[in-house]
Amino acid sequence: HKKVQSILYLSGVTKSFDGFKAINNLSLDIAPGELRAIIGPNGAGKSTMMDIITGKTKPDEGDVKFKDTIDLTRHDETDIANMGIGRKFQKPTVIESLTVWDNMELALAGNRGIFQTLFWKLSDDKKLRIEEIIKQIGLAEKTDDLAQNLSHGQKQWLEIGMLLIQEPEVLLVDEPAGGMTDYETMETAKLLKEISQEHSVIVVEHDMDFVRALDCKVTVLHEGSVLAEGTLDKVSSDKRVVEVYLGR
Ligand code: ADP
Ligand code: MG
Description:
- By secondary structure, this protein is α/β, with parallel strands linked by helices.
- It has one domain: 3-Layer(aba) Sandwich (Rossmann fold).
- It is built from ten helices and ten strands.
- Strands 6-7-8-3-9-10 form a six-stranded mixed sheet, with helices on both faces.
- The longest helix is centred in the C-terminal third of the chain and has 14 residues, at 182-195.
- The radius of gyration is 18 Å and the shape is globular.
């Protein structure tokens, strides 16, 4: 069958809140397996863009396509998550009173519900996969620790692991480096680079050291549309980008 050109494709997307255009004629094209960083000042529309892709918000106008042909504007949030578009929010939503392993099992059980999960037997394959992911997110030594005993950064990694176990095709990650130590920030960049070898990954982030470490194409959002796109060096030497960041 035909090869997918764009894992995500947005064109002419507009979204207003009380007459204010939070997203204004936005276009974005993400290739399968691509790692893309989205930057832009506060209020640029980054989170709203994520909301539109994941079906949390419906655009007023424009195309939002998954794998070239699937019209995401016609699906709700649950459908879109089940199609393989996983999202990590800014705040971790791990369950503090459960261990790292149990959080992973719960993520795998998904919407089966806690009661059914109690009687649900994990296959050896899935156990192996959980082990693999826990190792990948750097928490092998913490497998049996309660999530409440993890650092902020480790909780973020666990959350990324909880998305990975659901085998998404696309991962959307909103400001993962916020509140992390420098070391955790660099480890997170490494982790996302690694993950992007098997999944498409879109990362919204302010931290420029982090974005530099991602070493990928960057899209600069401003007032709800794309101001510049290219390597970090290219966009950060763009006069308009400099003005947007320094001029206010
Ligand atoms: P970013 O994530 O880039 O900081 P957001 O997407 O959160 O920006 O917000 C873009 C603009 O849209 C902001 O001016 C914000 O106040 C506005 N906005 C976002 N969501 C809503 C909403 N639900 N109701 C009203 N205004 C909103
Ligand atoms: Mg935001």
